[in-house]
Amino acid sequence: MKKIVVLSYGLGNVRSVGNALRAIGAHVEVSHAEHSIMQADGLIIPGVGAFPHGMANLVESGLVDVIRKYIAFGRPVLGICLGMQLLFDKGTEFVPTDGLGLITGSVDIIPVSTEVGRLPHIAWSTICQTEQGRQKMFAGLTDSEMRFYFVHSYAAMGVKPDNISATVTYLGNTIVAAVQSCNVWGTQFHPEKSGPSGLHFLRNFVNNC
Amino acid sequence: MRVIARLDVKNQFVIKGIHLEGLRKVGDPNQLAKAYYEAGIDEIVFIDAVASLYNRNNLFSVIQKASEEVFVPITIGGGLRSLSDVEQALDAGADKVALNTAVIREPGLIENVAKQYGSQCVVASVQAKRTANGWEAYMETGRERTGVQVLDWVRRLQDLGAGELLLTSVDQEGTKTGFDVPLVQAVNNAISIPVIVSGGYGQPKHIAELLEVTEPSGLCFASVLHYKTATVDELRQMIALAGTTGIK
Predict the structure, then answer these.
(1) Is residue B21 scored above 70 in pLDDT?
(2) With respect to CATH, is domain A3-208 assigned 3.40.50.880?
(3) Which pLDDT tens digit goes with each residue over A145-190?
(4) Do B72 and A192 touch (CB under 8 A)?
(5) Is A57 a residue whose pLDDT tops 80?
(6) Contact: B164, A122; criterion CB under 8 Å
(7) From the centroid of its chain, how far is CA A159?
(8) Whose CB has fewer CB within 10 Å in chain B, the N or C terminal residue?
(9) Contact A118 B73 (CB under 8 A)
(10) Boundaries of every domain in chain B
């Protein structure tokens, strides 16, 4: 059984992520302890909340170096929602804040005028996978099963095409839905809240660990 | 557009009434939640039907179990009065909290929850009742007047940091005579956060009548699902037939 650590850093629905992983047969540990993280087969950075708050919590708890070290060893990491956003160079929510800088890009507000549409983007949206996404992250999911739950107002911009695994269209904007850079994965949607498709995606991550 | 199941819970049973009154037992909350999840529901809202009257919270164990077998967003409402109530609800496995009574007495709670946990987890719940010249917000599951105009109130809730709005028509709730279309339209136009509509569905034409005029972000269903009048797929088809894109 694969051991997956769900990172607890004070921001995130760690229980929901843990429940979804248990449902697919993973051994789950919710932790922020370095020794526990370093022994994990995979690490998930969950997150709901604001970018500066999330980054500050990672910095204060000394987790930035732990995450970097874990990735440097080639171990698999999955960032979910805010956890994915933190993987990028910087974010502009409230105040400009440096991110983990693991994937090129910045996290900015989705450009919609309130006359046309609403923020946050809270919806089940059908995403469009790239060839890279099809090979690993979304392997085994048909196009009609590519429906996931989103809740966010900010999105990753300026991401290199090589790193994009899936996109979603919201009010005419093409938004990054999933990213991959070697052993680092990220999703803007919440797989733990996306029903059977979400569980399938998490199984792909765990199998990759 | 999201198809949402609403489970009003009293003493560990899902109940259903008319105008939020005259309650009847319809089933076990966890069994129903699991059945709706397996049928493909987009989201589940649990409302503690009595908590705010007696000032207690007994829904947390239901939520805890639901979060272990239902992998779609879960909202809990009813009787949440403080930041620590909200913390307990989220710890139990809820993704969002619906706040009504407490917020009317203490609007700062929305701001505090939004700051601490993010706007996405704050659902402002508004119970609206028709008046001569608009709608008035009610509290205590539709029993008590507040004297506050709904349209002023929803703008205020948005400014305070609510991430979405759960709009219940006290007049239409449980009547199966259709949604309060002018209410939904007025609220949807007044604010720019997603609006979830609850109360009134009885037959397919009610969805068409609503979506012809305005497009909310989600529709809540209770009786129709509890009494198996329609399945989740059928509801989804009705929405698709009404020509919605789900993004307005």
Answers:
(1) no
(2) yes
(3) 999 999 998 999 999 999 999 999 998 889 999 999 999 999 999 9
(4) no
(5) yes
(6) yes
(7) 14
(8) C
(9) no
(10) 2-241
Considering only CA atoms, which of A208, A189, A207 is closest in space to residue A197?
Answer: A189
Annotate B35-97 with DSSP letters as a single string: HHHHTT-SEEEEEETTHHHHT----HHHHHHHHHH--S-EEEESS--SHHHHHHHHHTT-SEE
- Integer-rounded Cα Rg, in Å, for chain A is 16
Count of residues for chain A?
209
At CB < 8 Å, which residues of chain A contact B? 13, 15-16, 19-20, 22-23, 48-50, 114, 117-120, 122-124, 149, 151-153, 170-171, 190, 192-196, 198-199
Segments in A26-150 forming alpha helices (H): 34-38, 51-60, 63-72, 82-85, 131-135
Active site residues of A: 81, 190, 192
Task: Return the H-helix or E-strand segment holding A109.
Answer: strand A103-109
Distance, in Å, from the CA atom of A119 to the CA atom of B198, rounded to the nearest integer, reads 20
How is residue B137 written in tokens?
């917000």
The rounded distance, in Å, linking the Cα atoms of B8 and B26 is 10
Residues B93-112, mean pLDDT to the nearest whole number: 86
For the stretch A71-92, pLDDT in tens is: 999 999 999 999 999 999 999 9
Apex B216 CA angle, B243 and B141, nearest 5: 140
